[in-house]
Each structure stands twice: as C-alpha cells, then as structure tokens.
Amino acid sequence: MSLPPSTPRPHIFTLAWPLLVELVLAVAIGIAGTSLASHLSDTSGAAFAIAHNISVTLFLLFRIVGSGVGVVITQGLGAGQRERADRVALASVGASTWIGAVTALVALLGAGPLLKLLQTPADVFPLAVPFLMALAPALLFDAWNASMAAVMRAHLRTRDTLLVLVAMHATHVMLAVPLMHGWGPIPALGLPGFAVALTVSRALGLFLHLLLWRQHLGLVTRAPDWWRLPRDELAEVLHIGIPAAAENIAWRLSFMAAMAAAGTMGAQALATHAYVQQIGSMVIVFSLATAFAVEIMVGHMVGAGEFGDAHRLVRSALGRGLVISGVVSAAVALAGPWLLGAFTSDPAIIAEGRLLLWLGVLVELGRTFNLVVINALRATGDVRFPVAAGAASMALVLAGGSWVLGIHLGFGLAGLYIAFAADEWIRGLIMWRRWAVQAWVPHARAARRKLRAR
Questions:
Q1: Residue 6 domain-assigned?
Q2: Triad 13, 18, 22: Cα angle to 5°
Q3: Which end of the chain, N or C, is less packed with Cβ atoms under 10 Å?
Q4: Is there a single domain that holds both residue 222 and residue 268?
Q5: 340 contacts 354 by C-beta, under 8 angstroms
C-alpha cells in the first residue's frame, strides 16, 4: 500500500516488533539446529557451525536483490508510484531465480573446496561436506523467499512476513527432529536431515508468499517472470543492491577468515565459537529489527521528501538501540554458564565461552551503530561510502586482527573477539559521523529528483 502524505505513517515500533519476532524465531532455529547437532557429538556441532556459516555467506548474495528491491520500492511508494513499484517487485522474482540457482550450484559442487579453504579440522570435514551439499536446494528457495519478503516489508506488511516465517520454522522443527535422529520407520539422517527439513519448509514459505502477494498486494507472477531480467527495473535495484551486498559480503568474508583462524585451534575451539555465536545471536536481533524498520521508514520518507523527519528518526532509533543492546548483551553474559550448558557439559568450553560472552558486550554496542546507521544510509541511496569506508577495517582489523591476536600473539578465541569489537567500533563511528554531518542528503535529493522526473 502506498501512503499519501496526508496519511500518518506507522510508529517505528509497529514495524519493528514483527521484525523482532521474525529474527528471534530465526535465531531460535539456528540455536535449535546447533543444539540438535551438538547432541549428536561436539564434532557434529562444529560441522554444523562451519557449514552453516558457509551457507549464510552464500545467502548474502541474495542481498543484491533483497536490499535493492526494498529501497527502490519504499522510495517509489513514498512518492506514490505504485505501478513502478509493482514492476520492480516482479523483476525481483526472475533475478532471484538466477542468483539462487548459481548459489545452490556453488554449495553442491564446491562444498569440499570451500570447507578446505576454511581450514576445517580433519575430524569435522567428513560430516560437514554432505551437510553443506544437502543445503543447496534450500538456498534456491531462500532466494525467492528473501526477495518476496522484502517486497512485503516495503509495503509495510511486516505482520504477514512474520506469519510466513512462523509457518516455515514450525514445519522445519517438526521435520528436523525425526529426520536427524530417526523416528519409527524414518532412518536417522544426522545433519543432512536438518537440510532436508529446511528445504521442505522453504518450499512452503514460497507457496505462502505467492498467496499473500496475490491477496494483499494484487501481484500475480506469470511464467516469464520467473526467469526474465528486465533491464530498467533491475538497474535501479542493482545500483542499491550491489554495494549493499558487497558490504555484507566483505564482512562475511572477513568473518570467515576469522573462522579459519578458529579452525586452526581445533574442534573444541570451533565448537566453543559456534556455541557463543549462537547465544550472541539472541542479542543482535534487537538492533537488526530496529535497523530494518528504520530502513523501511527512511525509504518512505526519502520518497516523500521528508529529510528532516528521517534525520530525527535515525538519531532517536540509534539511542534506543544502544541502550537495548547494552542491557540485553550484559544479561546474556551473566546467564552465560546456564546458556552454554544447553549445548555442552565440557567445563573448558563453558569457561572460555563465558569470557567471550562478556567481550561480546563490546562487540554488540559497536555493531548497533553499523546496523542502524548503514541501513539508514542505504535507504537514502548513499550506498557506496559504507562499502569503501568499511572494507579496509574489515580486512585489516577483523580478518587480520583475528589472526594476529588469536594466533600469533596467542590470545586464542579472546583475541578474535577483541578484533571483532575493534572493527565494529571503528566502522560504527565512521558511519555515525557521516549521518550526523548529513553527508547523505545529496544522495536523498538525487533519489527524490529521479522519482519526480518519472
């Protein structure tokens, strides 16, 4: 739905709470998967973690479409250009087909080389390879679901996307347990069982998205929409989406370099890192929900020419985000022994994990700057600066610092987390300065001029 200027926009909390629940559910599934894998063995838990991280890295390619589609459609709806927004939405389907197919082939054919590149321990490798290969079909469905959900959110239908996610995750859990551990005549498939359940649940998500597109947005896909690549619509999407995806991919590649450092420390260190990462993901969802809601609102405001409102929205959202992430991350660190106990009974893993959770408080405070402000910059059309400014920090501080502090100076996993925190704070403060001095305004004005020209 397009909101005319006379119609009050929803409060940011109205958009943020369904997004928060979505993210919490997604994190819960990740934690459940790690827990199910760790109950098979700590080696299985490590294999799940490293293969899952590769699949998440490949998923970032979908940001090329998802990020661009979300910004272009929100700006178009803010300017009252519904017809063009619909053309962009349909163009995203064909683009997702091609990106999803390529990504699935990479996971299927490149599982072994990718895992070797990450220094996967010898005892973990035989479990991780078939698991990553089994994740390939789910990646194709995820490509479609990601772009369709981005369109729904751009139309402010965040509750609908929440319902789809609930249905997907409920189906995934109900199928994952019997497929992984066996039940009656169903054989125990181990980690590949998790991937099979994931594929079925993502297929259900695609069906539900198509239904909601028809019922609430009046969008109906035709056969050519599934493979066509219309140049005009996708040019705008790629203008936003490629830099946005590049920023995410640069971070993920740097993070994977840090994971490779953890891999050289052995299966126990890799398992510790995996468990702490899953617990820490319960904190990041609060900042992520705020950031996604801010991106949607700022996109609508830019389309309507309300730059002052956008500036005030980001300042207030960032302040609240810092308070929430600080309180939640400290609470998680305090509960560390009990949370880690859900994954393992190894006292060495629990002891080191507690230290990492406290270091994680510093990581999350810095990350809040990045999530909220970068999403806001992207919504204004200022997409190149975050990539250019962040790439050096990611490569030198995140990736390089992890190896220097963790391996060469012998700080172990604690060294990795110190590097994580330093990188987040450096990039976060750079991004905040750009927003505070309003260097994004020329980009927002340019986007507004293009919309008015149409």
A1: no
A2: 135
A3: C
A4: no
A5: yes
Cα–Cα nearest to 101, from 66, 156, 142, 131: 142
On whether residue 7 sits in a domain, the answer given is no
| 178-186, long-range: CB < 8 A, 24+ apart | 180/36, 180/37, 180/40, 181/36
Q: How far, CA to CA in Å, does 115 sit from each of 26, 105, 120, 121?
A: 24, 15, 6, 9
Other CB atoms within a 10 A radius of the CB of residue 306 amount to 20
Q: In this structure, are 426 and 304 located in the same domain?
A: yes
Question: Is residue 289 scored above 90 in pLDDT?
Answer: no
For 113-263, where are the E strands, in sequence order? none
Please give the tally of structural domains in the chain: 2
Q: How far apart are CA 283 and CA 360, in angstroms?
A: 9
Give the tokens for residue 346: 């190894």
Looking at the structure, do residues 102 and 249 belong to the same domain, yes or no? no
Three-state secondary-structure class, residue 183: strand
At residue 9, the pLDDT reads 63
pLDDT in tens, 22-47: 888 877 787 788 788 887 887 888 88
Q: Out of 188, 205, 229, pick the residue that ends a domain.
A: 229
Residues 331 and 187 reside in one and the same domain: no
Q: What's the rounded Cα separation, in Å, for the pair 288 and 263?
A: 28
Sign (positive or negative) of CA dihedral 368, 371, 372, 374 = positive
- pLDDT for 7 beyond 50: no
- Answer yes or no: do 214 and 295 share one domain: no
Q: At what angle do helices 347-380 and 63-78 cross, to 10 degrees?
A: 40
Q: Which of 160, 127, 424, 445 is nearest to 287 (CA)?
A: 424
Q: How far is CA 439 from CA 96, 250, 372, 434, in A?
A: 32, 23, 16, 6
Instruction: Give the domain extent around 416.
Output: 238-453
Burial class for 217, CB neighbours closer than 10 Å (0-12, 13-18, 19+): buried
pLDDT at residue 4, as a whole number: 44
The answer on 256 and 290 residing in a single domain is yes
53 and 147 belong to one structural domain: yes
How does pLDDT run across 154-213, given as a tens digit for each residue?
A: 898 988 998 999 999 999 989 998 998 888 788 888 899 999 999 999 999 999 999 999
212 and 256, same domain (yes or no):
no
Per-residue model confidence as pLDDT tens digits over 107-161: 999 999 999 888 788 888 999 999 999 999 999 999 999 999 999 998 989 889 9
Angstrom distance (rounded) from CA 314 to CA 299: 12
